[in-house]
Amino acid sequence: MEKNGWIQTIVIACSIVVAGYFIGNTYKNGKAFERSVRVKGLSEKQVNADLAIWPISITIAGNDLNLLKIKLEKQNKEIKNFFLNEGFTEKELNRGTTNINDSKAVLYGGNNQNRAFRYIANSDFTVRTSDIEKLQKALTNSLELISKGILISSKNTWQPIQYSFSGLNELKPGMIEEATKNAREVAEKFALDSNSKVSKIKSANQGQFSISDLDPNTSYIKIVRVVSTIEYQLED
Question: What percent of the chain has pLDDT over 90?
Answer without folding.
Answer: 39
